[in-house]
Amino acid sequence: MDTEEPPKISLAREKLLEEAKRAISGQGGDKLSLSIVIIGHVDAGKSTLVGRLMYDLGSIDQRKRAQTERSSEKMGKASFSWAWEMDSGVEERNRGITIDMAQSVLSLPNRTIVVLDAPGHKDFVPNMISGASQADTALLVVDATNGEFEAGFDKGGQTREHLLLVRSLGVQQLIVAVNKLDTVAWSEDRYNEIKESLGNFLVQSGFQQSKTSFVPVAGFLGVNLVDRLQPEATELEKWYTGPTLVETLDKLDPPGRAIEAPFRFPITNLFKGQNAASSGVAVSGKLVSGVVQVGERVRVVPGDESAVIKLIMADGESLPWAAAGSNVDIYLSNIDPIHLTIGSVLCPTSAVVPLVASFIAQVIIFDQSYPITVGASAELFHQSQNIPVTIVPLETLDRITGATIKSNPRVLSKGMSAKIRVAVRGSTISESSASASHARLPIETFKDNKDMGRILLRRNGETIAAGIILSLE
Ligand code: GDP
């Protein structure tokens, strides 16, 4: 255990809040920063589009590009060479799909954008949830090719599920890249057809029209990503006069950050510091609310332990403090790493996050193979954690007014809105039992903290429901 003399706090709380607010509003001269998750059906061209975008913005160097091109040709997969900039794992290259959330940063004239590339394959939705729960915005990529847009959008395709997932995880802003327009001879009719069928679904799923933009592109050719005028796309220029993808990204609104709320930091990863300045244990994740500075003592929930913030790092830079919305690595001292786990939450000692074994939530039921009955088992996704739970339906609700339609329903099926009780499995163990803390979750109501108050339920690889926490029990 690291017991060296911890660093001292340098700013009073009021001063710290003031600085954080100034930085977040862009007044401090810093570019506004936000994160984006890339979603869409497998093979829609997500990795290719992001790879090409990075290259055109100068984030990938020529030598590395030439290397990737050569090795993708060698394996007979030249058409995937751009995607390879993003998909670097061997398994991903062999299968030509993106598995993990790769992270890259786009530096635009007015915005710094952290790109979380989401996997398109069906098995990988859980990875995407962890990415999407950290994202401010989503970029949906759809394949405009005849028949391909439909395959990705109809039942069995991932377009709808991804959209419902990100929306229920709190993402409000959406950019839709209508991709591979080269395969339909840059047809304006095809673009409008896709825009219309998606548009209707988006409205039904709760995306506001004013926060949704559509951009026609061809990722592989680099058309309308950074530059609109391309020799390949004279047909597109005849009818499209709107912004490029980069212009659209550069105008995104950073979402409101809950800076004044208590500090909450769900741990998404744990590692050991390497050098002298950063020895000891480190945790990574996103500050979902509040502010924190070097020298502060924080509680680790679950458990009774506390630690001192020794160092805060982001993009290789050491920071004196961090505020809601930032993805950072935090180095801790005065704690034994045994007390830290993925899914634990760091919080102020004066405003500890509640720890509960069951709660009441309001959810929307998704399309699924079997309806939800009393006592149904499911997997609960909350921040970076997933844990087994049992569900008891309490009431079905009117989707618009929220009024009770029926109490104690026997089953919940697709499209219903419902109030349910969710209990962590194994949580009947008595309070005094040593393992009781493992069966409780650090969560909050949606009213108290929007990010800590959202949940998602999955079963047998399907997302069955998503919603918000109404009360803790
Ligand atoms: P992902 O699964 O969504 O990440 O898709 P990939 O980026 O791996 O791309 C899937 C396939 O679509 C690859 O063969 C790409 O070369 C191809 N592709 C991507 N963008 C375009 C495009 O703009 N036009 C055409 N014709 N093909 C593209």
From TrEMBL:
Subunit structure: Component of the Dom34-Hbs1 complex, also named Pelota-HBS1L complex, composed of dom34 and hbs1.
Residues of the full protein shown: 167 to 639 of 639
Annotated family: Belongs to the TRAFAC class translation factor GTPase superfamily. Classic translation factor GTPase family. EF-Tu/EF-1A subfamily.
Catalytic reactions on record: GTP + H2O = GDP + phosphate + H(+)
Protein name: Elongation factor 1 alpha-like protein
GO biological process, one term: regulation of translation
Domain Tr-type G: 31-257
Subcellular location: Cytoplasm
GO cellular component: cytosol; Dom34-Hbs1 complex
Keywords, ordered alphabetically: Cytoplasm, GTP-binding, Hydrolase, Nucleotide-binding, Phosphoprotein, Protein biosynthesis, Translation regulation
GO MF annotation terms: GTP binding; GTPase activity
